[in-house]
Design brief:
Elements: E1 2-5, E2 15-20, H1 36-47, H2 57-71, E3 77-82, E4 96-102, H3 123-141, E5 149-155, H4 175-181, H5 183-186, E6 194-199, H6 212-232, H7 249-255, E7 260-264, H8 284-299
Parallel strand pairs: 1-2, 4-5, 4-6, 6-7
Antiparallel strand pairs: 1-3, 2-5
């Protein structure tokens, strides 16, 4: 399993990037630079590697793509953390935030009524949030440094050991638990201050609701993110929480004692984990909404 870090990913693990170190002065978010069409282009590129499940050729191609994109950014370093899945030294800046997603996709469209064994493209699940982070990295490279260090982490193995996600009754993420088990390798003296995890963020009818475990773990951060988002795109940010908790890569970070929250539009019917999860279901405007909210959130004290 590989985890891509900006320090990166390799066979079945997690990946994180130490993207920026904080500046001593206050800086402003340049949200107008965040381009939804550029992010859509990333999704189009990633779909060429489908399926992007562990062990498939597209998995390594995705890793290489993320590495190449991050190499063009202002990342201080790009690291790869690797582990095998079975059936720095102390330069860490005390104030750091993790911005995360996963880059693996499920192996087949198990929910598809007509073609359940065909590849699942995964334009929304999971290419959308990879595009979100890569476009954010690009814009950060063009912007003043914020007053908090940013660690972008691209987790592997979120879809579980069978690469079936919710289609596997024994599903469990692999990369993020491995990452937190080795947290002191990257944060020997101070844990990250907080974390935000993104998944499924390009739905044309974007409706983002706070998630219950996120509210329990990081209530002030959820409130801040939703408040910022509501000013940018009022129709996309719902005040009421989802009716149930959603497990994702933020769950392991929460269990490690890092206040963490999830940003996801989980209502993606009838396309969720079918052959119809394609670029046609994605919206540049939705990506821009979430990306610009993220940028302003990073720069807001």
């Amino acid at each position: 399993m590989t985890e891509l870090w900006p320090r990166l990913a390799a066979t079945a693990a997690t990946a994180a990037f130490l993207l920026t170190s904080p500046t001593a002065r206050a800086a402003e978010a340049q949200i107008e630079l965040w381009d939804g069409q550029r992010a859509m282009g990333v999704i189009t590129d990633l779909l060429r590697f489908t399926p992007r499940a562990m062990g498939e050729p597209g998995h390594q191609q995705t890793i290489d793509y993320i590495k190449a994109a991050m190499a063009k950014s202002a990342a201080d370093a790009v690291l790869t953390q690797s582990f095998t899945a079975k059936g720095d030294d102390d330069k860490t800046i005390p104030r750091r935030i993790i911005v995360a997603t996963h880059y693996d996709s499920i192996i087949k469209a198990y929910r598809d009524a007509k073609s359940p064994d065909d590849p699942m493209p995964g334009a929304n699940n999971s290419a959308s949030a990879v595009a979100l982070l890569l476009e954010t990295a690009r814009v950060l490279s063009l912007s003043p440094k914020p007053d908090i260090g940013i660690d972008m982490i691209f987790f592997d193995g979120e879809e579980g050991p069978k690469s079936l996600g919710a289609g596997d009754p024994t599903w469990r993420p692999l990369g993020s638990p491995h990452f937190v088990a080795h947290l002191k390798d990257y944060y020997p003296t101070h844990k990250p201050e907080k974390a935000v995890d993104f998944d499924m963020v390009c739905d044309k009818d974007l409706k983002l609701q706070p998630e219950p475990s996120s509210l329990a773990s990081a209530l002030p951060e959820v409130k801040k993110f939703w408040s910022i988002g509501s000013r940018i795109a009022p129709s996309a940010f719902m005040p009421d929480a989802t009716a149930y908790a959603i497990s994702d890569d933020h769950t392991a970070l929460q269990q490690a004692g890092i206040p963490s929250f999830l940003v996801i539009d989980f209502d993606y019917e009838p396309y969720f984990n079918t052959t119809q999860d394609t670029i046609e279901q994605c919206s540049a405007q939705s990506l821009e909404t979430v990306g610009r909210t993220l940028l302003r959130y990073i720069y807001t004290p």
